[in-house]
TrEMBL record:
It comes from Taibaiella lutea. It comes from the Bacteria. Keywords: Aminopeptidase, Hydrolase, Metal-binding, Protease. InterPro entries: Peptidase_M42, Peptidase_M42_aminopept, Peptidase_M42_dom2. Pfam families: Peptidase_M42. The keyword Cell membrane does not apply. Zn(2+) 1 binds at H80, D192, D249. CDD domains: M42_Frv (cd05656). This is M42 family metallopeptidase. Belongs to the peptidase M42 family. One of its GO terms (molecular function) is aminopeptidase activity.
Length: 371
């Protein structure tokens, strides 16, 4: 059951400032679809560089900022950088475009959305078309499916489409942009999980500005290709070979309509970060996170995951013979839509929880149950 776990009166301490909020907005508005994350990674690294000693980018685009690179004991804090999108799959002779998913894109929200088609010649503007309600009168309503949603870029022939630089394999993202709603929520596409990339970068900023010296190497990891199977995390875990990994991702705010709390759990935006229980979550590391929350009066919620977390936690946990790993999630409304929504205070508190958890880890700390 989700609830505030702290008995003390909680006083919210803001973390995000005007400069970091401006970066967050720019970062969310930039497209970084799975397999094509490079532009977003460049933005992220540019923001992070003042707060780290060095950085590394692997062959597929996972970016890593490193503090204390010579330390033998390595701690990872991680998020994933990629967003769901579409691929051009088929172009009709009349110049209409049919698509397949790149990640878990929701076909039901597509009709009437504005999109950007990414080509070697630049962005081509287009829309997901849909027949007018007037033309469906008296007919059995047909729901949007992968077989009937289509994109219209204003062309009338296949040749005209191809002349714009569009071909099978071009990636497509939605046009919707970041906003602040009621001075309470951040809203935008791809908060899953560029909010995570933002939060781990803010942890690095806090460590730098507060002049905190860590006794271990800290690897701030923004992984690619999570949305199609945790692939970036798999690769970078084997490269870094960390001793500990703290992963952050989003989870469902289940307080909105049409979500079954019996199956999905009871989690709400504004009530704090979510600490997970799952086979991949190492219990002693999880206890350290909870103690850091309690000691620093950070509100938090609890979630159980059957079998796997479905996040990069699983990739780190089962790499390199087993890496103690834990998951801190950000409650999010309307996942995999263009209006993903997170509470401002939850963002601050995830940053606080990761920050204070790092300050609790000792050099060479052994998290094993039996020694």
């Amino acid at each position: 059951m989700a609830k505030k776990e702290n008995k003390k009166e909680q006083k919210h301490i803001p973390v995000v400032n005007k400069k970091s909020l401006a970066f967050f907005e720019k970062y969310i508005n930039n497209a970084a679809p799975t397999g094509f994350e490079s532009e977003g990674q460049k933005l992220w690294l540019e923001y992070l560089k003042p707060y780290i000693d060095t950085h590394y980018v692997d062959n597929y685009g996972t970016a890593v900022g490193i503090i204390n690179p010579d330390a033998k004991y390595k701690v990872v804090i991680e998020a994933h950088a990629d967003e769901i999108s579409w691929f051009v799959n088929y172009i009709t002779k009349d110049g209409l475009i049919y698509v397949i998913r790149n990640g878990g894109s929701d076909h039901q929200i597509a009709p009437s959305k504005r999109v950007n088609i990414h080509t070697d010649k630049g962005i081509v503007k287009a829309v997901f078309g849909w027949p007018a309600i007037h033309t469906r009168a008296g007919e059995k309503e047909e729901a949007p499916t992968l077989k009937n949603i289509f994109i219209d870029c204003g062309c009338v022939t296949k040749e005209e489409v191809e002349a714009l630089g569009i071909h099978v394999g071009c990636v497509i993202t939605y046009e919707d942009e970041f906003m602040v709603l009621n001075d309470r929520y951040y809203v935008g596409r791809a908060l899953d999980n560029r909010a995570g990339g933002f939060m781990i970068a803010e942890v690095a900023r806090l460590l730098h500005e507060n002049k905190k010296k860590l006794p271990f190497g800290l690897y701030i990891v923004n992984s690619v290709q999570e949305e199609i199977g945790l692939r970036g995390a798999e690769m970078i875990a084997n490269y870094i070979k960390p001793n500990v990994a703290i992963v952050t991702d989003v989870t469902h705010d289940t307080s909105t309509p049409m979500i079954n709390k019996i199956t999905q759990g009871d989690l709400s935006s504004g009530k704090g970060p979510v600490v997970s229980y799952a086979p991949a979550v190492q219990n002693n590391l999880n206890r350290l996170l909870i103690k850091a929350a309690e000691d620093n009066n950070i509100p938090f919620q609890r979630q159980a995951s059957s079998r796997s977390t479905g996040t990069d936690t699983d990739a780190f946990a089962y790499s390199n013979g087993g890496v103690p790993s834990a998951l801190i999630s950000l409650p999010l409304r309307y996942m995999h839509t263009t209006v993903e929504m997170v509470h401002k205070e939850d963002v601050d508190n995830v940053i606080h929880l990761i920050y204070h958890s790092l300050l609790s880890i000792k050099d060479g700390q052994d998290f094993r149950y039996i020694k």
